[in-house]
Amino acid sequence: MKTDDGEWLQKGEAKSLTAEEQDQITSITVVPSDFGASACILLKNGHTTFIPLSKDAAYGIGETINVENLKIIILTKDGRDVFRAL
Hints:
This protein is mainly beta. The chain has one domain. The protein has one helix spanning 19-23; strands at 9-16, 25-33, 36-43, 48-52, 71-77, 80-85. The strands form two sheets. It has a three-stranded antiparallel β-sheet, with no helix packed on it. It has a three-stranded antiparallel β-sheet with strand order 2-3-4. A hairpin with a 2-residue loop joins strand 5 (71-77) and strand 6 (80-85). The longest helix has 5 residues, at 19-23. The two termini are 21 Å apart. The mean pLDDT is 92.
């Protein structure tokens, strides 16, 4: 998928986390970041990962996201893919 106008395009459908992925997560909280709001995902192994929220996400800073409700989308532009939480 390619775009000539420099816009990011969604690649495929929004994906829910698998049961195995959900089992690895302790909590998800929305935090401010350099990319706007991000999902701060605390994993059971003690690691933390961040996924920027999509502009279409309905969560605000400080909110907790139920792991069963988190969806991931892939955006693509000029052959580059990025993940966003929705």
